[in-house]
Amino acid sequence: MMIKTEDYNEDDEISSEIIITMPNDYAGMRLDAAMAALLPDFSRSQLARQIKEGALKLNEQIETSGKTKIIGGEKIIFRLPESVEVMESAAENIPLDVVYEDEQVLVINKQAGLVVHPAAGNHSGTLLNGLLHYCPDLRNIPRAGIVHRLDKDTTGLMVVAKTLQAQTHLVRQLQERSVKRIYRAIANGIVPYDGKIETLIGRNPHNRLKMAVVSFGGKEAVTHVTVLERFETHTYIECALETGRTHQIRVHMREAGHPLAGDPLYGNPRFACAAHVKEAILHLNRQALHAQQLSFRHPESGELVQFSAPLPDDMKMLLSVLRDMPFPQDEDSNHDDWEDDDDENGVEIIYAPN
User: pLDDT higher for 264 or 343?
Assistant: First the structure.
């Protein structure tokens, strides 16, 4: 078809703009009607208002009339309006672990179980609702400043823009792949070596709730995997994202034959392991995946900033079971080999050199 940039509802990266090539079979349609057909999540009146306000470029020129007739093949650059769900979202007092904040950005260490953005079945209790309570001015920013997502049960670091300037800057960095995201995960089986997984990822044709590696029609997805520690039946790994597709690490590790421990969507609940390990995975009650490091250019200063967050306790507990060592019960516990040196007891903020 026609949407050539990141499909705005099928990626972890959320762009304020999309680029569309008008299908030839839309010839003769009004511009606003064609846009409504292409973007069914938004009403025709919303789209017409956006067009009138100058949010659409037709063949590189701003077009403000929704009555313009389509001939087919036109290049459209369109700034997305707020979805109905976002405009109607209520501010809710949801605890947020804000690990860094200034006038331009927030960095949040997201907890498990928190949906990022309102959607069907999740109209409240989301990160967006919590952001509107924490910083009411975010209602004036598209998607309350959210520029990328984490899955509901994936923990770890996210950056949120507090100004339109910052949002535009961060979206551009995401599109240029200059935002660096590194995850920690525990995978089933023995991952034999470090490597790069490069595939196309698209919707699973048999289950639209899942993503899958596909032969054609998907989007490029690249994950770099580093083995950190091997156990009898599992492997502790680090995954660095080069792209940001929905469920990318989970899909790639499943494709590699090593789905993430506890993954309810892509995992193997019958994976053979010791009873005490299986019990620890059941206690985890989610995929063993944590966004541990995040780095980007600060929208105002241009400096490269990097943030690091420790593993959550549930993943530490699973590692302690796999290592066959006790889990630290208090802050005075001292296990030198408990975790890697970069897993501090707090969030590390690093101003990296240019």
Answer: 264
pLDDT score for 8: 40
| Highest averaged pLDDT of the listed ranges 78-82, 247-251, 344-348 | 247-251
Q: In this structure, are residues 272 and 316 in contact, taking their beta carbons and an 8 Å threshold? A: no
pLDDT tens-digit profile of 217-254?
Answer: 888 999 999 999 999 999 999 999 999 999 999 999 99
Predicted TM-score (pTM) of the model is 0.76
Cα dihedral: 147, 148, 152, 157 (round 10) = -100
Q: Does residue 47 come out as left (phi exceeding 0), alpha (psi in the -120 to 50 range) or beta?
A: alpha
Size of the chain, expressed as the number of residues it contains: 354
Cα 82 from chain centre: 18
Predicted pLDDT at 140: 82
User: Out of 151, 153, 263, 314, which one is annotated catalytic?
Assistant: 151
Q: Which residues of 52-81 are buried (b: 16+ CB within 10 A; e: fewer)?
A: eeebbbbeeeebeebebebeeebebbbebb
Q: What is the dihedral of CA 272, 275, 278, 280, to 10 degrees?
A: -160
Residue 58 reports pLDDT greater than 90 = yes
User: What pLDDT was estimated at residue 121?
Assistant: 60
Residue 99 and residue 85: Cα distance in Å, rounded? 27
CA dist., res. 308 & res. 284, Å (int): 22
Q: Is 121 left (phi over 0), alpha (psi -120 to 50) or beta?
A: left
**What are the backbone dihedrals phi and psi of residue 255, each rounded to the nearest 5 degrees, phi first?**
-65, -35
In DSSP notation, 267-289 reads S-TT----HHHHHHHHHH-S--E
Please state whether beta strands 348-352 and 304-308 pair in parallel, antiparallel, or not at all (unpaired). antiparallel
Residue 84: helix, strand or coil by DSSP? helix
- Provide Rg for the chain, Cα atoms: 22
The letter for the amino acid at 154 is T
- Specify whether 151 is catalytic: yes
Q: How far is CA 206 from CA 11, 71, 202, 251, in A?
A: 19, 35, 12, 15
